[in-house]
Amino acid sequence: MYSKPLEQIENRRGGFYRAAIVGGTVFLASLCSQVFADSSDGWGFSLAPMYLWGKNIDGTSTIAGMDAPLDLDFQDDILKNLDAALAFHFEAKHGDIALFVEYNYGKLDPSSVTNVGSETIEVNIDFKDVMGELGVAYTFADSGSTQWEVLGGVRQFDQKIDVDIGTSIDGPGILPDKIAGGDDWWQGFGGVRVKTKLSARWSLVGRADIGYKNTNNKAAHAIGFFDYRFRDWGSFFAGYRYLDTHYDNGKSGYDSYAFDAKQQGPILGLNFYF
């Protein structure tokens, strides 16, 4: 058996992470409400609940020195193996300042079967992937139809992977029958966002940023989408999102964990304004 009990560590870590995201959301809402109460022109709010990021995953996760491949196609693999998903983006804007919070939760349970010589090997992966953002944007240029913003904030990741390995040969073998690991980490990010009004109802939005804490903890991130404002209170958006993450906690043995993967694919959802 090649695994380490992580239940207590994971529960404490997951509880802290969820509390931080919820606390940040509550703080942001409270701050906006307070300023809104004292402001004559008020705030504008938007919420995209349960939006879809149909991402492909191409990369590997290294657990206790062993690689667990994460090559998953959205249509063929993720839709079939998706166990749970939750995502939202909330934004509050006042003048040139915008505050935003985002939460993405996904749980996948893919499996694969391969043959090594005469032996059949079945691999079952349970992958929990959580990402959250807290940030602020400032409009530094506005031509009327196009707005340019500089943005920055913090991004948090929380991942856990359980790999069960079964073989067609009874008894102890070369391969372990289970690998378990994961980690949580944060990084600061900075970048730009541009919003261009194409017509009375259509807009184009683009964002690009770099996340960085050190050479073993960095990410490149980009989003582009079209937004159709069908009512004053709502719009539909569709586009594409890309995230390239490189992380290695630098530890050895059971505590080592690394994640090197590209996640990309279409996004679509509804935005509500109030």
Notes on the structure:
- The protein contains two helices and 14 strands, in the order H-E-E-E-E-H-E-E-E-E-E-E-E-E-E-E.
- The chain is mainly β.
- It has a ten-stranded antiparallel beta barrel with strand order 1-5-6-8-9-10-11-12-13-14.
- Strand 12 and strand 13 form a beta hairpin.
- The radius of gyration is 21 Å and the shape is elongated.
Brief synopsis:
This protein is mainly beta and 274 residues long.
Strand segment tally: 14
As laid out across the biggest beta sheet, the strand order is 1-5-6-8-9-10-11-12-13-14
- What gyration radius follows from the Cα positions, in whole Å? 21 Å
Could you tell me how far the N terminus lies from the C terminus, measured between alpha carbons in angstroms?
54 Å
**Number of helix segments?**
2
pLDDT averaged residue by residue: 81
Question: How is the main sheet built?
Answer: 10 strands, antiparallel, barrel
The H-and-E topology, N to C, reads as HEEEEHEEEEEEEEEE
Q: Secondary-structure map with pairings?
A:
Layout (H helix, E strand, L loop, with lengths): L6 H32 L5 E6 L2 E2 L2 E8 L2 E4 L4 H8 E13 L2 E12 L2 E6 L2 E24 L3 E22 L10 E20 L4 E13 L2 E15 L2 E15 L8 E17 L1
Antiparallel strand pairs: 1-5, 1-14, 2-14, 3-4, 3-14, 5-6, 6-8, 7-8, 8-9, 9-10, 10-11, 11-12, 12-13, 13-14
